[in-house]
Amino acid sequence: MDAFVAVDLGASSGRVVLATFGAGSLGLRLSLEEVHRFRNATLRHAGHEVWDVEALWEGILEGLRRVRRRAGDLRGIGVDTWGVDYGFLDAGGRLLAPPVCYRDARTEGWIERVRSTAGAEEIHELTGVQTQRFNTLYQLAAEAGGGTWPARAARLVFIPDLFHHRLCGRAVNERTIASTSQMLDVRTRAFAVPLLRRLGIPTDVLGEIVPPGTVLGPLLPSLQEELGLPPLPVIAPASHDTASAVAGTPLEPGDAFLSSGTWSLLGVERTAPLLGAAARELNFTNEAGAEGTLRLLKNIPGLWILDECRRAWAREGKEAAIAPLLARAATAAPWTLAFDPDDPRFFHPGHMPSEIVAALGLPAGAADDPATLTRVVIDSLALRYDRVLDELASLVGARPSRLRIVGGGSRLDLLDQATADACGLEVLAGPEEATAAGNALVQAIATGLVEDLAA
C-alpha cells in the first residue's frame, strides 16, 4: 500500500488528505481519506487583509500528526492552493510578513497604471492570462510603485511554494501556480523579465520555475523528529488547485470542466495557448496544466456568493445550513430572477443578500427569504455558465458536448441540474475530490508508481 499526503488549501478551508494506492480489479485503486480539515480565514494586518499563514501551517502539521497514525508506506507530500497570492522570504528564508489576500483593496487603480506602460494587448499576447485586478502582476506593481516593497525581500514564493519551503527548505516557483500570476511568458514558460522590469518590478526575487512532479527534497530533519515521520519526499504537484483538479478529472474529447468551489473555473484543456483579440476581449486565460497542457478557462465568482449569504443569514438568526436551504430552493420557481455574478459588487465581503437585491433592482428588504435568494444564486450561476460556454465555443469553434463538474460544488444536485438545464448539456457530477486526487496522482507519477495521467 503506497500512500501520499495531499495538502489542499482553499480560500475558505484547508485539508490534509491521505491518498492510498492499492490493488484493484482494474489495476491500481486510489482511495482518499480526509484526515484533517481546518478553517482558512483572513486577518487585518498593517491595514491590509492578509492570510493567517501560521494557522494554516499548524493545520498542516496537525494533519501530518494524524497521517502518522494511519499511513502505511508514505511516498511523498505535496501542497496545492489558490492562485496569485505570494509572500516574501528574507535571505535566511524567513517570511517577512503575512501574505496579502487577493481580495484586499490595494490593487485598485493599478490595472490602469500598468496599462500606461504596457497595454492590454501586449500583456495578453505575452502572458495569455486574463486581466483581473488581483493578479500577482498588479499586486507587485502596487507594492513596487506604492513604496511598500520590503527592503529585505530575497525571494518571492507563491502560497504552495511557501509551504513546500517550510517542509523541505527549498524555495522554488512551481509552474502551474506561477502561471496564474500574469508574469510568465506563455510560450517560453519563463518569467517575462523584460516586461516586469519596464513596470518597475524587481526581478531578483524570482526563483527557479520547476514543473509539476518535481521532487524538491526530503522533509526537514526537525520536522521528521517533531512529527515522527521518515525523510518523506516533498513533491511539488500541480500546485495550483485548479490544475490539480483538472489532473484529477477523467476528461474525454469534447468535455469541458467546471471546477466548482469558492470560484467557478470553466474551460477546456489544450496543448497550445489561444491568444488574440477575441480571447483577450472575452477575458479568457491560458494557465499551465499538469503534463505540459494549458487550461483555457474563465474565472467566474462561484459559491463564494452563496457562502457570504449564508454567513449573513447566520448572523441574523435565519436558516443558513446548506442542505435545508437547497431543499427549499428546489421547490421555488426557477428562472424568475437572475443577476450577473461577475458584477464587482460581489467581490468583497459584505452583506451579500443586500448586494444581490440591489443588483436585481429590487427595493431594500425584498426577496429576503433565504431559500428564494438561494434559488436566485443557483440560477444566476447556471445562466452564467451557459454564456461562458457560448464564448468558449466562439473561440475554439465548437461548443463542448459534455460538462464535468468537479470539486465541492459538484455535491450540490440543484446546481448540477440547473447547469444541465441552462446549458442544454449532459452534466457529469464529480469527482468531488478531484483536486486531492490530481495532487496525489502527480506525486505518484513523480515516484514512478503511475506512468502518467492517462494510465
Could you name the key traits of this structure?
about 450 residues, alpha/beta, 6-stranded mixed beta sheet, 4-stranded mixed beta sheet, 16 helices, 18 strands, about 35% helix
Describe this structure in words.
The protein is α/β, with parallel strands linked by helices and 455 residues long. It has helices at 53-68, 110-115, 120-127, 136-145, 159-168, 175-178, 193-198, 221-227, 241-247, 277-281, 304-315, 322-329, 352-359, 370-396, 413-423, 434-446; strands at residues 2-9, 13-24, 27-39, 42-45, 48-51, 73-81, 86-89, 155-158, 173-174, 209-210, 214-218, 233-236, 255-260, 263-270, 285-288, 294-301, 402-406, 426-429. A 6-stranded mixed β-sheet has the order 15-16-14-13-17-18, with helices on both faces. Helix 14 packs across helix 15 (413-423). It is globular and about 60 Å long.
Ordered list of secondary-structure elements with their pairings:
Layout: E1 2-9, E2 13-24, E3 27-39, E4 42-45, E5 48-51, H1 53-68, E6 73-81, E7 86-89, H2 110-115, H3 120-127, H4 136-145, E8 155-158, H5 159-168, E9 173-174, H6 175-178, H7 193-198, E10 209-210, E11 214-218, H8 221-227, E12 233-236, H9 241-247, E13 255-260, E14 263-270, H10 277-281, E15 285-288, E16 294-301, H11 304-315, H12 322-329, H13 352-359, H14 370-396, E17 402-406, H15 413-423, E18 426-429, H16 434-446
Parallel strand pairs: 1-6, 9-10, 13-17, 17-18
Antiparallel strand pairs: 1-2, 2-3, 4-5, 7-8, 11-12, 13-14, 14-16, 15-16
Helix pairs in contact: 9-16, 11-14, 12-14, 14-15
